[in-house]
Amino acid sequence: MSAELVFCMGEYEALFPTDRLYGKNHMWAQTQPDGDVRFGFSAYAVRLLQDVYFLDLTIEPEMTLSARQEIGSIESKKAESSLYSPMAGQVSRLNDSLLQDPTAINLDKYQAGWMFDMRGDTDELLAPDAYMEHLNAAWEIAQRTIKGQANA
Q1: What is the pLDDT of residues 129-140, one digit of tens each?
Q2: Which helix (H) or strand (E) holds 44?
Q3: What pLDDT, on a 0 to 100 scale, did the predictor assign at position 115?
Q4: How far is the C-alpha of 43 from the C-alpha of 49, rounded, in Å?
């Protein structure tokens, strides 16, 4: 892995490799040697989810997706959420072992925790510095949401 940027989430530090791009939906994207783009959850997403125990992808290889199209769902200790495509393109591969046991999302988010590969245009994705700016705004909203849930 390359150099990393650090984003502080309270007492927790989320690390972000600078050798990849990021989606506003908190997925990382890394171009593979064959030109496909591999996606997984960023440290920010994993920290907010905490303890992922179920992943369901409703996509399959050769399926064409539009950006922000629903692609499945995820369940964790903290949340249950729908998942959306970070960009338009064609699905080329799924990480079948992750679908059987999603704990790699918690343990090795930037390697074994990858979810799927796509072919497509990465123009909608953010460079690491732009993603950090996005996180600053997103963290303020997340803190209000967390505090609201804690006081409910």
Answers
A1: 999 999 888 777
A2: helix 43-49
A3: 98
A4: 10
The residues facing 119 across adjacent strands are 90
What's the pTM?
0.87
pLDDT digits (tens, 9 = 90+) for 96-142: 999 999 999 999 999 999 999 999 999 999 999 999 999 888 777 76
Q: How high is the mean pLDDT of the chain?
A: 90
Quote the CA–CA distance of 19 and 11 in Å, as a whole number.
25
Q: Which residues of 104-144 form beta strands (DSSP E)?
A: 116-119
Taking CA 34 as the corner, what is the angle to CA 33 and CA 37, rounded to the nearest 5 degrees? 85
CATH number at 4-147: 2.40.50.100
- Best CA proximity match to 40, nearest among 16, 62, 76, 68: 16
DSSP state for residue 108 in the 8-state scheme: -
Domain boundaries, the chain: 4-147
